[in-house]
Amino acid sequence: MLTPERDLPLATVVVDGKLIESISEDASEPRNATPLIEAGDIIAPGFVDLQVNGFAGHDAASGAAAVTEISRLLPKYGVTAFMPTLISRPIPDAVRFVKEVRTASAPGAVILGAHIEGPFINPKYRGAHDAAYLALPTRELVRELIEVEPGMVTLAPELPGALDAIRELIAARVKVSAGHSGATIAEAMAGFDAGIRFGTHLFNAMSPLHHREPGLPGALLSDERITIGLIADGVHVDPVMLSFGIRVAGPDRIKLTTDQTAAAGSPPGRYVIAGRETFSDGRSARLADGTLAGGVATMDQMARLVAALPGVGLRDAVRMASGSDQGIRTRGPANLVVLTPDLQVRLTLVEGRVVYG
User: Fold this and answer.
1) Does residue 300 carry a catalytic annotation?
2) Per annotation, catalytic residue among 259, 281, 289, 325
3) How would residue 326 be classed by pLDDT, with cut points 50, 70 and 90?
């Protein structure tokens, strides 16, 4: 069992209701308890995904019904909480999306609020975002978003008006992430000083890391205040650079994010992300021109890939998949994933409910 302090080679965890009642360093079986796992299994904190555009044919942008179905399906891959994500659309669409996310049910993974990725991004680094929908972060548009209280907003800190927008969003308790950006290191640091505390998909849709102008990647890696999203599928970021990013920032500051689209958990074919047609070959999803358009890998796949990287291992991989603030502790929430010895998902619990396995 992977606890915040150490690994327990032999342990029993007892769940009662929504909470962990007790943890003991033995293989006991309390009276009137139902055993759920097998000897040799690994008990870990549930995985958390802060960037889910869709899954298994369901596009989150289509509304509450799709978000509800994504919640039901994600625990099969160890995910116990997630952020439905909308890429750049006109602000009225973003407002509607936040409201739809709020009305969605969560039969499986907990819904952490809406992640609005754009439209306040740099056109040069828009990736799969539609250039027609991009906008500057004017006070009027930012306040429209604030009124519906999204969970997170990704923006480019170098845009005119961005620093004021960051301060307003933070004052309204909306998390702000830097992404889709060509910011210099000075512009990025100004954004961090204004309140940015997350970085959206390190190395992707941002200026390259350069030894004389480290830009946004260098700022994200060097600033201890920032948690960094990393798409660890081996496609968006080469494994060599995955290892580099983890070594520089440390596992406590890296958060694995799938950037999943409707093509994830689905066979190869044609899919839609926020109205844009994409094509999946089973390993990546791309626009017709070849631009990467979100991810296809699941969170458990990423955990297995990262665990196999030199110098990482299971404990750090799980920490990055679940988040440094998650952990197994007495009286803590029973959001757990049980993994087989080869790191396949056997069982997932959300608030004490078996939602997969």
Assistant:
1) no
2) 259
3) confident
